[in-house]
Design a protein that fits this description.
The protein is an alpha+beta fold and 721 residues long. 29% of the residues lie in helices and 25% in strands. It is built from 19 helices and 29 strands. It has a seven-stranded mixed sheet. The chain has a six-stranded mixed sheet with strand order 7-17-16-15-8-29, sandwiched between helices. It has a four-stranded mixed sheet with strand order 18-26-27-28, sandwiched between helices. Strand 11, helix 6 and strand 12 form a beta-alpha-beta unit. The mean pLDDT is 96.
Length: 721
């Protein structure tokens, strides 16, 4: 009789690894430089590629001559991204690429290219709705109404009108986008900086055929990616530059490495779109919001005329009476790509700030108003939000520190508190894996997933070690190659569930087969067996060691497959979180400083507590970046991206982040929900929470994020006027 094991997570109290703080298995490799990224790939006879990009707001290609570039010593291949007559829609658009023996020769080749264009009219002012209308650069995206807004406004105790905005930011991965490509016996091998190992080969195949009439079977394309130096939603495809590298590699008969330079990376590798809104919000005397009316606009890059999703606005809250209208702007700015929780940071920044302002107008604490309106949030999150808000308040000292807006102190430096809430799905992506139990007792997991810095390798090892009752060093996690079983892309906070579920299912199936062999050998009931502490047990009696059990398997061992997601309780979806910020604002310089930043976050069953907290810390730091300094700045006159470098595209340093306090919300009910993704939620509420803290400190709403010193001083000056 075959052993039947239940597919489930074990009781929380019995866990040896799950939920504990386990250091990353690849931490030493990364810290010592042993970890190899796509940018480190250096096969024999590798050529180095550089790109020529457009420098202007909008133009049409007049001429492009690559002949002199081909004559430069060391140049082995050239590639044109455009042809005469093509329009270039934004600063940084790719024009040509050169591959050469050495980097400086590739740069010489770029300088030898003769490129001329005719300048065309451009528009890059993403917050200027009237200007866009005058330039006929808008698109009506419709409106959505529920209830009777006008009637609710008439009965409200307080009505507030405000303007809010959040600027475009660029993807700023420390490892820029790119790849190292080579052809071997007609087969393409790509070391690619990607969030999508399994899905990218087909993308290379289709684009090589479409763009260059190069035919190759998907089965003959291997994408490799062991480590990624940053991927926050922009690294899912082969990309034009990756395809160009493959084409030049085939032309030259040698490997080609093409990584974007920093300026080009910031200009074309993707942006998080902007959002601006005029909001009318109304509440009764107790802070219950009775009406919401808004018109929001922004750009999702290029001439598409889109903006953030109207259907999700206002964010988290579904008020009884609401009207919302949206207008898309067509701008000559770089293309948008998913950026950590799209488009939730924008929606939150335009919603929770208005809620904070109505609370201030009522003379109430923002926390009390958020609590009063939780019945308008998703039903499954209401109790979670309430518990998290109250816990965050204790951690930051809300009861002691809170004061009405504008009462932040007598001197020039004012201090204030702000809060915001957020939600995210985090459902596991579709994926497969293979799990092997070897005769020597070692265990392997194989899947075409990737670790974009979130600890995927460690999490898989923990799941298998927990399931088999063995040590982490007995598990070998093999991933980062498209030849392994297909797994989903790392986006939408879907990876942890997408790899943990299949590996747990495969491991339980493998364990059942091992128990069958042990039961037959030792004449025990297979259904009575458990694996723990490197041994096999029948009830409380030791049957044999793990290695002895595996030694019964013969030469082939056991191999099983796992798939997901499935409705078996291993994974689920929908989380909520709360963030509270304590800031100081120097009203003479406009500088905002973080004192404390508190996050209380749920995510179902936590695999690695250390990594989970690390995800939240990282989200808070990214949130501080886009809240205070990070911004794409386009020059209205020239259309150029004028801060596309690491000096002027400002990210926070260690002295800019203050004290970060993270607590994972983990009652038993959360554990029982199964695993839910965590990568994106922690970055969502930061902008609104910090903006609200600045408003609480100064009594003045700085309308647009990031809250740069100039914007703070301008808002204070306008308030005085």
């Amino acid at each position: 009789m075959a052993t039947e094991l239940k597919v489930a997570w074990g009781p929380r109290k019995d866990n040896v690894y799950l939920g504990k703080e386990i250091q990353r298995l690849d931490g030493i490799d990364k810290a010592t430089g042993a970890a190899k990224f796509a940018a480190d790939a250096n096969p024999k006879d590798c050529l180095y590629a550089r790109v020529l990009s457009f420098k202007g707001g909008h133009g049409k290609v007049k001429s492009l001559d690559l002949e002199d570039a081909k004559k430069v010593p060391g140049v082995k291949a050239v590639h044109a991204f455009v042809k005469e007559g093509d329009e270039l829609q934004w600063d940084g658009a790719l024009v040509a690429a050169v591959a050469a023996e050495r980097q400086e020769q590739a740069e010489d080749g770029i300088r030898a290219i003769k490129f001329m264009f005719d300048a065309m009219e451009h528009f890059v002012d993403e917050d200027d709705l009237k200007g866009a209308e005058a330039a006929k650069r808008t698109k009506d995206l419709g409106n959505n109404t529920k209830g009777d807004v006008e009637a609710a406004l008439k009965t409200a105790a307080v009505v507030h009108k405000g303007s809010y905005g959040i600027a475009t930011i660029s993807h700023m991965c420390l490892e820029t986008h790119g790849s190292c490509t080579r052809w071997e016996d007609g087969k393409l091998i790509v070391n690619h900086s990607t969030q999508n190992v399994s899905g990218t080969p087909a993308n290379f195949v289709s684009e090589l055929q479409k763009q260059h009439n190069i035919s190759v079977d998907a089965a003959d394309v291997t994408v490799l990616c062991q480590f990624v130096g940053g991927g926050f939603g922009s690294k899912f495809s082969a990309d034009d530059w990756g395809v160009a590298a493959a084409k030049m590699s085939k032309e030259a008969g040698r490997p080609v490495r093409l990584m974007l330079d920093r300026a080009t990376e910031l200009k074309i590798a993707g942006t998080r779109p902007s959002g601006f809104a005029d909001v009318t919000i109304a509440a009764d005397k107790d802070g219950k919001i009775v009406a919401w009316d808004s018109h929001h606009w922004g750009t999702n890059g290029g001439m598409k005329g889109g903006t953030i999703n109207l259907a999700q606005f206002p964010y988290v809250f579904d008020f009884d009476n609401r009207n919302r209208k949206a207008t898309g702007l067509m701008t000559n700015s770089g293309p948008d790509r998913a950026w950590r929780a799209p488009p939730h940071p924008q929606l939150c920044a335009l919603t929770d700030t208005a809620i904070d302002d109505i609370a201030a107008k009522l003379g109430l604490s923002a926390m009390d108003v958020f609590l009063a309106n939780l019945d308008k949030t998703p039903a499954k999150l209401q109790a979670t939000y309430e518990a998290e808000i109250k816990r965050a308040a204790v951690l930051i000292g809300w009861a002691k520190k809170w004061h009405p807006h504008g009462k932040g102190g007598d001197g020039p430096v004012k201090r204030g508190l702000g809060m915001a809430i957020h939600t995210w799905g985090g459902r596991a992506h579709a994926g497969t894996c293979t799990v092997r139990i070897n005769p020597d007792g070692s265990v392997e997991s194989l899947s075409g997933t990737q670790d974009i810095g979130t600890g995927t390798r460690t999490a898989i090892a923990m799941v298998l070690a927990e399931t088999f009752g063995i040590t982490l060093d007995s598990v070998k996690v093999r991933y980062g190659s498209s030849v392994y079983p297909r797994s989903g892309p790392s986006g939408g906070s879907t990876t942890i569930g997408g790899v943990s579920g299949p590996n747990r299912r495969a491991a339980i199936a493998a364990l059942g087969k091992l128990f069958d062999v042990v039961a037959e050998k030792h004449k025990v009931d297979g259904n009575s067996l458990t694996a723990k502490g490197g041994k096999i047990w029948s009830a409380t009696k030791e049957v044999c060691t793990w290695k002895a059990a595996c030694g019964l398997l013969g030469m082939m061992g056991i191999e099983t497959t796992g798939e997901g997601p499935k409705d078996d309780g291993l994974t689920s979806e929908q989380v909520g979180g709360v963030q509270m910020a304590d800031v100081s604002v120097d009203t003479e310089t406009g500088i905002v400083r973080m004192n404390q930043f508190v996050a209380v976050q749920d995510c179902g069953l936590i695999v690695d507590m250390l990594t989970a907290k690390s995800q939240v810390y990282g989200g808070l730091i990214m949130g501080i970046a886009y809240s205070l300094t990070e911004e794409q700045i386009l020059d209205n006159k020239t259309g150029r991206y004028i801060n596309a470098d690491l000096e002027n595209y400002k990210l926070p340093r260690i002295g800019d982040i203050g004290e970060l306090i993270v607590e994972m919300y983990q009652p038993d009910s959360e554990y029982e929900r199964g695993i839910i993704g965590l990568g994106e939620p922690p970055v969502i509420a930061c902008g609104a929470a910090i903006s609200n803290a600045v408003a609480n400190a100064t009594g003045v709403r700085v309308p647009t994020i990031p809250l740069t010193p100039k914007r703070v001083l301008d808002a204070l000056k306008a308030a005085k006027a």
